[in-house]
Amino acid sequence: MPTLLPGNSLLRERYQIFLEIPSHLFLCCSMVSLHQPNELDSQFFQCAEDFFLNHSSQALTYDDVSLATLYSEILPRDTQLDTQLTEGIELHIPVVSADMDTVTESRMAIGMALNGGLGLIHYNMAEKDQLAEVSRVKSHVHGLIQDPVTISPDKLIGDLLQTIEKEKYTFSTFPVLDQDGKLLGVLPAHVLNVRFAKLRVIDVTIPRSQVCTILQSELGNDAITAADDYFTKNPMEHKLIVVDSNDRLCGLFTLSDILKINQERRAQFKAARDSRFRLLCGAAISIIRDAQGRMDRKRMMSHIAALLDRGADVIAVSTAHGHSRDVGAAVKAIRDAFPKLPIIAGNVTSGAGVEFLAESGANIIKVGQGPGSICTTRVVAGVGIPQLTALYVASKAAEKRKVTILADGGITKSGDIVKALTLSQGVICGGLLAGCHEAPGEIIEIGGKLYKQYRGMGSLAAMRAGSASRYGHLKADTTRKVAAEGIEALKEIAGSLDNVLSQLIGGIQSGMGYLGAQTLADLRGKARFVQVSPAGQREAAPHDVVELKTTAK
Ligand code: XMP
Predict the structure, then answer these.
(1) Spatial distance between the Cα atoms of 83 and 75, rounded to a whole number of angstroms
(2) What is the pTM (predicted TM-score) of this model?
(3) 314 touches 497 (CB < 8 A)
(4) How many C-beta neighbours within 10 Å does residue 16 have?
(5) Which of 375, 401, 429, 455 is catalytic?
(6) Going by C-beta distance under 8 Å and a sequence separation of 6 or more, which residues neighbour residue 472?
(7) How far is the CA of 32 from the centre of ligand 1 (A)?
(8) By mean pLDDT, which of 317-321, 361-365, 482-486 is the weakest?
(9) Which of 317, 457, 467, 500 has most ligand 1 atoms within 8 Å of CB, for mutation?
(10) How many angstroms is it from 282 CA to the middle of ligand 1?
(11) Is 368 touching ligand 1 by the criterion CB < 6 Å?
(12) pLDDT at 2
């Protein structure tokens, strides 16, 4: 890039007309003309409309294209990655973790939301387990815990221990309430021990007179700051109970939550939270069927109602073929039963598919059939569209129907995410996150290297565990030969989710900086595409060197 200086003689020669203009103005005028579109550039580097229509005879995916760099005044750190998927689902990074049984359970969903993204809890588990997973995310650090788990005075410590075990509670502060909801005291953590199993709660409770409380009316508009002040003034306390004027329990603050929230407020990317300051959490469902294979509407609706009761913010109807009668009927039934619920549905790869799901009531549509790292749909069934072409046609239909789309599958590096975000409002990642500590599953050591299992939801093993309906099969069929549309695989351990996401986010921000895009909307508006030859693809990756790796400290 040449440096543009006021006295630059080359520039003065080219723009003789400005010679009499003071040099600081000369700089402005000449720079304005230099970052105007260049005619030849626009023939080679085309906007999405021109590019994809000119390439309509060939389906393209991430590595087939590159984005042209554009004049920029935006540094990577100045970019904003906020994305609104639909009303109430605002993310601060455009990344969603896949609803797969080797990717997203509560640990992953918590990590995703803390980083500003969203996790979709998979459904390859008993319904009650999925409810507990959602509860775990929703009860994670949210400042004021509005519905603390409480206990009645007559319960035995032994019974409480069993409940803790069954519900997998990770906290140990239990307010004790009478039958009118009035505070009788708090159970001290040290009595949660089998040696006290036979004692009644009330006999070991710290009495009301010794419990620190704050009136709800004293919290004002900024409850977190009020709690923070309280803990500063009362260094011996680490719990604060909120009561109303009748001494009925309204909530609970813990010092550790407040510390984490203060840390989070200083972070570059805010956590994704709901209106009650709880982490956002999505839950996936497949079409629940009865023994005859018909949609079991009643059971499906009651499970969704229970998920919402636990605080799920969005429900994803995850199937391999979203543009189909049963999926449309399921989405419609959910929309009728829950008019305001944000619904994700998929997967599709055509404009007609997007319109169909939008018409059925979905707000956010998953785009991708067969691009996933563990997918064999294209091999087995011979169907599916390479991802960028699918995203282009889907994005046009989404614009028309005022819904958003998520690019689902096939993302192997941050550059793919930048390309996906030129056409979509977010991406869904499976393989990129499956090696993180937060993904479910054990670490396996093979030949000195560490791995985690990663399997397609259409693999035989996953379908036997419950996901058969996603691929239009009955679970019973999986004992016979059904064609698997996914494989079982291993992913090398990738470290913590925070590190993996910060690498991905850094890449997205760099991409936006190169395009002069401050926001994701700017990125969508500015992107200029060019097709890359096979030699260009080789040139794009490190080549002709032996790579050395510096490990992060
Ligand atoms: P990545 O590339 O991130 O893809 O690993 C994750 C996405 O792949 C989809 N998926 C499957 N597709 N057979 C398929 O054809 C499968 O067994 C399968 N399992 C998951 C899904 O959309 C996921 O988000």
Answers:
(1) 19
(2) 0.79
(3) no
(4) 8
(5) 375
(6) 319, 320, 321, 324
(7) 46
(8) 482-486
(9) 457
(10) 17
(11) yes
(12) 38
